[in-house]
Amino acid sequence: MENTSNFEFRYNCPLCKEKSQLNIFYNGDIRSGGLGSPLVSGYKVLQCGKCDLVFLDKIPANIQEFYEGDSYRENFDYQIDVVSLQKKFDHEQNSRISRIGVERMRGKVVADFGCGPGIFIDAIARVDGSTIVVEPSIKYREFLSARGHRCFSYAHELLQELGPEVDIAVSFDAVEHVPDCLGFIESIHASLKPGGYFYLSMPNIEDMLRFINPEKYNPFYFQVSHVNYFSAKTAANLLSLAGFVEVSIDFLHKYKIENVFRWLSQGSPGAFNCGEIFDRSFHDTYVANIERLGISSHLFLTAKKSPL
Ligand SMILES: [Zn+2]
């Protein structure tokens, strides 16, 4: 899939904008698409010596087209229809909703930035005053518009039309895809009312599998569509630089212990079949401890727009 004309090099840190202090963080093959896709060479994962952000040295040149059309879902999920994606991602909404709290969303204007097929916003649509989605995919905007959500392609379009109208903003597993991550978060900040809340989640660069089985896991973890990689520190910095206050860091682990066994035994993602020896209590305790140690699969941050 690679040739020299379909990507652009990045020489500046997308967070602090420095270009003089970039170090190589990882230099090896990375994933070209979804599970089981071939690895590709020629990418470098860089780390900014000033702010510690980790990012890919190059991004797809046609990135806007990639997300507006069907290419992203075809290459990374192998399915683009909403029902298949609901089956795949419905369960991820449970922990998101419990962390925000239904009571915080009741009667409010909730906006989901980079919502994909809108699985979160659909799940909470009946508890809030109104729902807004920001999603470049034309297909998903058509689907979500028919379901009564106000739809925009990009945050600046929402801002132009509505101004700072949002009470609760969320963005899940989106910011790592956005080359100008700071500009993206700044536009979310601008769209919030004073005192509004923002919930941000993305993969954690300190994911324990990067330490447990780096040889196998790094080429899977780093992937061409994730152009930025955040730690608790750089994610908190991202929110502060965008103007947010009361930034609070939390961790979110999405996978059961069977996933670790699979990586250790087979060097691939999925669930190692353990039969029924682990119960819900074991799983909850395991996840709680992985999150406590900060080595979870994902970060989950909460922040506020200053009320003044
Ligand atoms: Zn930097």
Question: What value does the Rg take, in angstroms?
Answer: 19 Å
- Gross morphology is globular
Q: Numbering strands along the chain, what is their spatial order in the largest sheet?
A: 10-9-8-11-12-15-14
Written as H for each helix and E for each strand, in order along the chain, the element string is: EEEEEEEHHHHHEHEHEHEHEHHEHEHHE
The end-to-end span amounts to 49 Å
Low-confidence stretches: none
Which structural class best describes the helix and strand composition? Answer: alpha/beta
In DSSP terms, counting alpha (H) and pi (I) runs of 4 or more, how many helices? 14
Mean pLDDT: 93
Oligomeric form of this entry?
A: single chain
**Helical coverage, percent range:** 25-40%
Number of strands: 15
Bound molecules: zinc ion
